[in-house]
Design a protein that fits this description.
It contains 5 helices and 2 strands, in the order ββααααα. Helix 1 runs parallel beside helix 3.
Length: 207
């Protein structure tokens, strides 16, 4: 609280004291945080959905593990290639802009360290996807009974989705509960749709 004299009268002015953490710009984390959280969540949901889908028509544990592993490899490669192409396009745009700025003004210094790295982005996306995909794979790998395996996979995926949602919100200083609920519900919907449609086509559509 501070006082300011105005025309002989004293007016009180309230000043906000910011905590050290509040001075940090959390939007700077948005790019890598978004890529990491989305990559892990995609790996988790897509792999679990594939495993649930094949589990709807085939109770063999080998089939479920194989389809999950194939989804992990294909998804990680797809994420890496997509992120590489996207970031490389961004790099080309930024380099071209730097060249134009340099040609207009001789005193412009190129900030090469701040340029995006396509290889780093591709590796991070592939790793994040793989880590997420490993959750349902590990949950199903050592459980032979079909019903127990489905329940365990569903529980493991739900817990991991809640953690991913909370982690993304916590690092970005966003509401954690809403984020976790949103991610969990989205994952459930994806798995339910995949399980239901595969069950429908497998039992009726292929006869």
């Amino acid at each position: 609280m501070s006082t300011i004299p105005v025309n002989g009268m004293v007016h009180h002015q309230t000043t906000l004291e910011l905590e050290p953490n509040d001075l940090f710009d959390y939007s700077k984390r948005s790019q890598w945080l978004r890529a990491a959280v989305l990559g892990a969540t995609d790996g988790l949901v897509s792999t679990a959905s594939l495993m649930m889908g094949i589990g709807a028509i085939k109770k063999d544990i080998k089939a479920m593990i194989l389809i999950g592993f194939a989804g992990l490899v294909a998804g990680a490669c797809s994420m890496a290639i997509g992120e590489f192409v996207s970031v490389y396009s961004q790099l080309d745009v930024e380099v071209a802009q730097m060249k134009r700025d340099f040609n207009r003004r001789d005193d412009v210094e190129a900030e090469v360290d701040g340029l995006p790295n396509p290889w780093q982005a591709a590796a991070a996306s592939a790793l994040a996807f793989s880590l997420g995909a490993m959750v349902p794979l590990l949950a199903a790998s050592f459980i032979q009974p079909y019903k127990v395996r489905i329940i365990v996979v569903g529980a493991a995926v739900t817990m991991a989705l809640a953690i991913f949602g909370w982690l993304g919100a916590a690092l970005g200083r966003a509401p954690a509960i809403k984020s976790s609920i949103r991610v969990v519900v989205g994952g459930w919907i994806a798995m339910a749709i995949t399980f239901g449609l595969t069950k429908l086509i497998g039992t009726k559509g292929l006869h």
